[in-house]
Amino acid sequence: MKNRGIKPDIYTYTVLLHGARTKEDVKDLTDELKENGLSFDVNCYTVVINKHCQLNNLQEAVLLFKEMKDKGVEPNTVTYTVFARGLCHQGYRNHAVALVDEMISKGIQLNKSTIRALEVVIKKV
Predict the structure, then answer these.
(1) Buried b / exposed e along 8-17 (16+ C-beta atoms within 10 A)
(2) C-alpha distances in angstroms, 25 versus 28, 38, 51, 104?
(3) What pLDDT, on the 0 to 100 scale, is given for residue 93?
(4) What are phi and psi of 16, to 5 degrees?
(5) pTM of this prediction?
(6) Given its phi and psi angles, is residue 41 left (phi above 0), alpha (psi -120 to 50 degrees) or beta?
């Protein structure tokens, strides 16, 4: 793509980030995205937060979630769900419940995946 003079856009990077396998891959792609003057949208943030949760890099997921809100990018149902699931899997069930409470207070609808993440919390209590 680059060899043909075609610059990747945010959608291209989001797909590439979805397929990233290591923390280094995620960092390299996000650095490149920023170097190319692109900004994360809600979908890109969601994919990267999810990826960090999957790679047991919860601290980075927390920072990104805060960053997205600070930059005025509103998390959606999927963002909240992947982050809550990541928190649950890392043992931060109370934080996951607080996140879902925030979601509800903002009027963001729960979906089946959100409810399944909460079921994990309930079963382990």
Answers:
(1) beeeebbebb
(2) 5, 17, 10, 34
(3) 86
(4) -65, -40
(5) 0.90
(6) beta
Domain boundaries, the chain: 2-124
Give the Å distances, CA to CA, from 54 to 20, 79, 105, 119.
Answer: 11, 14, 27, 19
For residues 91 and 56, the answer to whether their CB atoms sit within 8 Å is no
pLDDT digits (tens, 9 = 90+) for 8-39: 999 999 999 999 999 999 999 999 999 999 99
Give the dihedral sign, CA 42/108/92/63. Answer: positive
The answer to whether 46 touches 81, Cβ cutoff 8 Å, is no
| Ramachandran quadrant class, 107 (left: phi over 0; alpha: psi -120 to 50; beta: rest) | left
Q: Which CATH superfamily is domain 2-124 in?
A: Tetratricopeptide repeat domain (1.25.40.10)
Report which DSSP code applies to 3: G
Decide: 64 and 52 in contact? Cβ < 8 Å.
Answer: yes
Amino acid, res. 123:
K
